[in-house]
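Researcher: I need the complex structure. Ligand is magnesium ion. Inputs:
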Amino acid sequence: MPAEIGPVHQASLKIVVQTATFNEAASIASLLTSIGDVLPSARILVIDDESPDGTGTIVTGIAATNPQIHLLQRHGQRGLGSAILDGLHYARDLKADISVYLDADFSHDPADIPRLLDALQSAAPNDAPYDIAIGSRRVPGGRTLGWPPTRHLASWLVCSFTRWILGVPVKDASGGFRAIRLTCLDNLDLTGIAEGYAFQEDFLWRAHRAGVRMIEVPITFTNRTEGNSKADFAEMLRSVAALLRIAWKTWLGH
Ligand SMILES: Nc1nc2c(ncn2[C@@H]2O[C@H](COP(=O)(O)OP(=O)(O)O)[C@@H](O)[C@H]2O)c(=O)[nH]1
Ligand SMILES: [Mg+2]
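Model: Output:
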């Protein structure tokens, strides 16, 4: 049953829902079905990095019978951030107005997408509209389920660092569930943006400095029950290095 129809849908804006995948064969088919149930008119884009478990092959099969589903199969490349960025550009090439991105492991509930879309339209009459709606675990009503204490600690450190050291005025800068008004990309310099998980903080840092308006929407994040996390120790180190580079640029006033 489709979710409640909000103002964005009535305005018939063109929406792409995108998800980056690496080894998500266990969940991708049901995720595509769930997104289609929530937003029947949206295009759905999967950006896959040659997943060895055949995620791309599964999507190819589904896309063959459903023209609303697109696969961007990348070759010889890895990285959550660069995958999301390629997806945003792909959505813009499709002439979409808004792209929503979310993880492929059901940590983000597709049923929350309409609330993110509606938040983009929620600015007061004389204010500029919001360009980014952030699915947030750190505003009242938001929460994270199923994480070990170490993940909670790492996430709290990253979000605090981004808020207080990098100066980005949001509480959850590290989540991967967002709605983006694609015109805002025109005002952002995305050269050299982090290609891994630190893309999430780097993107908001650049957006904030460009004057892009953002709003946080409470969501429940549920840790995956299928497949494995790609946020390993090496990725954590890459993210820390990327955040320190951004801090350096912040202090230098770049
Ligand atoms: N295309 C692509 N997707 C990735 C890559 N790394 C992670 N992902 C996807 O990014 C999302 C978040 O990754 P996940 O492993 O769930 O991270 P966690 O939720 O932080 O533990 C999932 O949909 C992954 O499949 C990558 O290198 N390339
Ligand atoms: Mg996950």
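Model: Summary of the prediction. The first helix runs from residue 7 to 10.
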